[in-house]
Every structure is written in C-alpha cells, then in structure tokens.
C-alpha cells in the first residue's frame, strides 16, 4: 500500500467533505439562483474535471452506462443543492447521506452485483453499526437547542448578527432530512452501472462518461423547467455560478482521488478513509455556520454518531468485499 494511495484517499475525504460548505456560503445563498440552474453550474464544474481527465488520457473511453450514472447524479445533486442543504444545513445531512450511502452500496455489492464478501455475518454487523450511528446523527437534529438562559450548556456564544438565511428553517428540517436519506441511496447507486461497462471504460476512464452525461441531463432538466415557465434567474444569481462551478470541480476531483485510492490501496481501506468526508463536512457546518447552535448535547450526539458511522464503514468495507 503506497503513501500516494493514502494521500489520494485522504484527499478524497477532504475534497468531498468541503464542497457543501461552498454551496451554503453567504454569496451563494444571497444570489438566490434557481436550484436547477445551480445544479447545472455545479455539474459543469464536474464536467471540467472530466475534460481534464480526457486530455490527460488522450482518449475518451465513452460508455452508455455513464448516461445512467449521470441521471442518478443529476437527481442526487439537485436534491442536495435544492432541498437538503437549504432545509437542514450541511452537518446533519452529511451523516445521514453517508449512512444511507454505505447501506445502499453494500446491497449493490453483495446482493445485486454478487461480488462476494469475506463474512456475511460480520458485514451485517457493520451495517447494524452504521444504522446505530445514523440514529445518533438524526437524534442530534431532534434535540431542542438550549434556551438562552442556559448559556453554560452551550459551546459557542450567540451571534445576534447571524444572517438568518444561512440558518436552516427548523419547520422544514424533516424535508431536508428525508432528502438527505434519498441522496445517500442515490449516491450509493450512481457508480453501480460502472460494473456493467467494458473494462477499458471503468475506473478513472468512467469519469468522463459519468460527468458529461450528468451535464446533459441537468441541462435538459433546466431547459424543460424554463419551457414550462419556471422563474428566470435574477441578475444577482450570476454571483452563485462561479462558486457552484468550483464546488462541482472539487466534487469531481474527489471522485478522481477516490478512484486512484482504490487502485493504489484496497477497496476496504480506500472506502473507509473516503467516508471520513462526513466528518469534514460536519466540521465545516459546526465551526463555520454553527449549525448545532453551540449546544454541547447536540454536538456530542453528532460527533459520536458520525464516528460510529465511520467505524461501521470500516467493518462493512472489509467484510462486505473480497478485495
């Protein structure tokens, strides 16, 4: 196992865990770019990375299976950008999505693609651990914030100047949590079609087909919405385009790093390290946006739950595969 492989895995976690914080930034929120156009901008950034991959490889290894992965990503990223982050923030959704991702990917690997596993019993124990971690993460969002007169129970001081548009609306929190779960299921499925692609279109060669297909589907969705009379973007919406493209490029780079990590290491190590991205996203949400309100109870539940999910990921990644 090479140092470069570990670096790629850690890079994947850091990159994949950081792009949601850009989408929640004041500049993007205040621009009020319609979600479908925000999604196109995000996926365009991913497509730019794909073009770089093609330039580096010198040849486009196209596969039509990328169309299916691209369609799944279009729905998943649309839900993330338009529903999950606006209504639930980035910390809690990242934990829910990661847990659902792991369970879904396990089902695909073990029972649909029939790729085999080291131990059925221990892999199921890992899934159970992931579900327990998921329950803790969700409970962190359900604990009521400490009232103002219990300042000693909080870790961060109140900020009266905080922009309310950056704070998730608790009334819509359930919608954001459900969307996060759906995103996790879709995320655990969007690379499954790669297994049906020919050998020379798998791995890093699959990324261009995947990304360019997603750009096609997201553009068609935005065009269809426009034709159906969806509200046009305000002039201020342009301010969100570049940040969204940067977020998409970071996401695309994280996928490339993950693929490189799987090649250099083994699947179990690469997958476990990459799932640490939820800890990175959580850190951004807690430290930068104070999503847990500085409440020590909510923070303890979240950190414990996220750590349990990562531990479960290690068990599932090792015993749920033969690699």
Automatic annotation (TrEMBL):
Membrane topology (UniProt): Multi-pass membrane protein
InterPro entries named among the record's database cross-references: Sugar_transport
PANTHER family reported for this sequence: EAMA DOMAIN-CONTAINING PROTEIN, TRANSMEMBRANE PROTEIN 144
Localisation: Membrane
Segments crossing the lipid bilayer: 36-56, 65-85, 91-113, 120-143, 203-225, 237-261, 267-287, 299-320
Keyword flag Membrane: yes
Chief location: membrane
Species annotation: Aureococcus anophagefferens (Harmful bloom alga)
Record flagged with keyword Zinc: no
Keywords for this protein: Membrane, Transmembrane, Transmembrane helix
This protein's name: EamA domain-containing protein
């Amino acid at each position: 196992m090479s140092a470069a492989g570990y670096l790629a895995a850690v890079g994947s976690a850091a990159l994949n865990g950081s792009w949601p914080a850009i989408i929640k930034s004041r500049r993007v929120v205040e621009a009020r770019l319609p979600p479908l156009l925000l999604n196109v901008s995000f996926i365009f950034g991913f497509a730019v990375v794909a073009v770089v991959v093609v330039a580096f490889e010198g040849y486009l290894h196209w596969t039509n299976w990328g169309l299916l992965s691209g369609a799944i990503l279009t729905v998943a990223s649309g839900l993330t950008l338009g529903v999950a982050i606006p209504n639930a923030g980035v910390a809690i959704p990242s934990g829910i999505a990661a847990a659902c991702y792991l369970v879904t990917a396990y089902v695909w690997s073990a029972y649909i693609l029939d790729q085999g596993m080291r131990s059925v019993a221990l892999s199921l124990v890992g899934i159970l651990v992931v579900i327990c971690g998921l329950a803790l993460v969700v409970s962190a969002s359900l604990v009521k914030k400490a009232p103002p007169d219990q300042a000693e129970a909080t870790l961060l001081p109140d900020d009266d100047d905080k922009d309310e548009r950056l704070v998730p609306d608790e009334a819509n929190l359930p919608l954001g949590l459900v969307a996060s779960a759906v995103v996790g299921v879709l995320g655990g499925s969007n690379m499954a079609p790669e297994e049906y692609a020919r050998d020379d279109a798998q791995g890093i060669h699959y990324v261009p087909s995947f990304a360019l297909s997603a750009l096609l589907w997201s553009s068609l969705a935005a065009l269809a919405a426009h034709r159906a009379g969806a509200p046009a973007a305000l002039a201020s919406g342009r301010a969100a385009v570049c940040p969204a493209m940067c977020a998409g490029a970071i996401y695309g780079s994280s996928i490339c790093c993950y693929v490189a990590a799987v090649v250099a290491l083994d699947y179990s190590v690469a997958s476990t390290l990459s799932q640490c991205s939820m800890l990175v996203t959580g850190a951004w949400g807690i430290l930068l946006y104070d999503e847990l309100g500085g409440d020590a109870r909510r923070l303890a539940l979240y950190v414990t739950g996220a750590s349990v999910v990562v531990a479960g990921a290690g068990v599932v990644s090792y015993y749920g595969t033969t690699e």
